[in-house]
Amino acid sequence: MPRKLVIHVGAQKCASTSLQGSLRRLESESGGLLSFSFPKPSMLRHLQELIEACSTSGFDDIDNVLSGFSADQAVISHEMLGNRPRLACWIAERALLKHDFDQVVIAGYTRLQSNYYVSAFSQWHFRDQKKLQSDISVMKLNGLDWQKFSALERSVFAVVLSEKDRNWHSNYKNFWSGLKGLCGDASVVSNHIPTSSKPYSLIRNFCELTGIETKGDLEQYDVRKNATFHPVVLFGLSSHLSGVGMRQTCFPGPHEGNLWLFRVCDRLASQTSVERQVDDIYDPCFLDKLLGHLDRRTFKDNLSYCELMSVDSAYFAPADNSELLPSHAEIVELARSVSNSRNSRKIKRFEQMIQNLFMEAARAEITSC
């Protein structure tokens, strides 16, 4: 069997944690057919610095990873690599030239941009003070009352106005360009993550895309790690952090305290009506318009990505009732109209109620330790 290295490049919020869980299970039960590594972020950041400085030494950590694979089929996986195509391609080159790999495959997954931004907010941005304050600043710069909007609405509104969309086509062109000229068999593969309307086995698809050979039924290794935070935690903590600005806080930020936050969520399990209350306070039509605009705006680039990577374009089709909002000024006027239609007192009462629910659950979890 030729020696093959697969470099899984994420992206973030594209089922990477689920796939990594599946690969760990597959490695442990493969009978030596597969090796798997999830490198430390600090190692990847240091390696990026070395590459940018054109260093000729200091690569011991990555060399230890590449030389430590015992199987002829190996996978390196980290979401950070999706934002660092030069780094991913450098690892591919080193594997071919210095570590006797015969083939390298760069593999990644994508998703509809609107889903990507909502998922990123629900995992990280709702507890990111810097991001919350940046989104508030965007509202203020456009003469809008930020307190009339939810933190999620403000986050998506800022993305819409920035026009800096996650561009899958550009990402994968960069991966292909970085592999050109390598002395060896190097390729790039990709797909859209499974959806409820278009489901499939992620680990099976990954192995088929990358040519990894396995034994038995792959679906038994599928791990789905898609736990989400309770709406009270999302709205309560984002509301609290928006109000305190950049002052020091005891609550965990992005990538911090997930287990603690999930225990707080467990204490809120009986609060089942919050999402209905959210829709009553913040009419979802405004958020739906923003998300539909994003999917319309990115559709042309998504089609180019699908053509480049042989991905089913139906995954990226915007909703039938979505529309491309004509201009920056009209997007702001839409937000202003929404702001004028909302009741400040009703919003404040709701935010106070939801913050109290969150604080009570958080305090109960703290004092139980």
A few lines on this structure:
This protein is of the alpha/beta class. The protein has helices at residues 16-28, 41-52, 60-67, 85-98, 113-123, 129-141, 151-162, 168-179, 202-210, 231-244, 258-267, 274-281, 284-309, 328-341, 344-367; strands spanning 4-8, 35-37, 73-77, 103-110, 185-192. Helix content is 54%, strand content 8%.
Mind explaining what this structure looks like?
It is a single chain. With 369 residues, this protein is of the alpha/beta class. The protein has 15 helices and 5 strands. The chain has helices at 16-28, 41-52, 60-67, 85-98, 113-123, 129-141, 151-162, 168-179, 202-210, 231-244, 258-267, 274-281, 284-309, 328-341, 344-367, and strands spanning 4-8, 35-37, 73-77, 103-110, 185-192. Strands 2-3-1-4-5 form a 5-stranded parallel sheet, with helices on both faces. Helix 4 (85-98) runs parallel beside helix 8, helix 7 crosses helix 13 and helix 10 (231-244) crosses helix 15 (344-367). The longest helix has 26 residues, at 284-309. It is globular.
Q: What's the overall geometry? A: globular
What strand line-up does the widest sheet have?
A: 2-3-1-4-5
Secondary-structure element series: EHEHHEHEHHHHEHHHHHHH
What is the CA–CA distance across the termini?
Answer: 53 Å
Mean pLDDT level: 94
Write the layout of secondary structure elements.
Elements lengths: L3 E5 L7 H13 L6 E3 L3 H12 L7 H8 L5 E5 L7 H14 L4 E8 L2 H11 L5 H13 L9 H12 L5 H12 L5 E8 L9 H9 L20 H14 L13 H10 L6 H8 L2 H26 L18 H14 L2 H24 L2
Parallel strand pairs: 1-3, 1-4, 2-3, 4-5
